[in-house]
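Tokenised fold entry reproduced for everyone:
>
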Amino acid sequence: MLKKRKTEVYALGQHISMSAHKARRVVDQIRGRSYEETLTILGLMPYRACFPILKLVFSAAANASYTMGSNEANLVISRAEVNEGTTAKRLKPRARGRSYPIKKPTCHITIVMKDISLNEFVDIDYVTWSQKAKCKNKYTTTMCYHDMYSNGGTWDEK
């Protein structure tokens, strides 16, 4: 029996105080790239939007390593989108007692990362209950990394 495995994780940043147009200029450069390549691109670009997007990429990679046990070398940004958020409206005092409206736009940024080393479908007949019991994380039922040097042998006992 085949079961669909979760191969994508996401990080969502809401109400980031910049316009969606300025954030899209940066997000368009990193869409479809690998994790390491994205970090170098965002580190070298001179835009203010790079820092919140870099934080979201770090967060998505941490989510992938925690939920799926993924290695950072296998991560690719599969989807990255920027949506407009709410606009904060302020009034700036002007000459002769008048006021001028100031609009402070916000945006919502979503970064979706995919692990290219994982298969999308898993045959769950081969997964035994002993493998599920040995896994430390409940999300990684079929892919458990075992440390071969600390196996609880006689040298570990005091």
Notes: DSSP finds four helices and five strands in the chain. The longest helix spans residues 50-67. The radius of gyration is 22 Å.
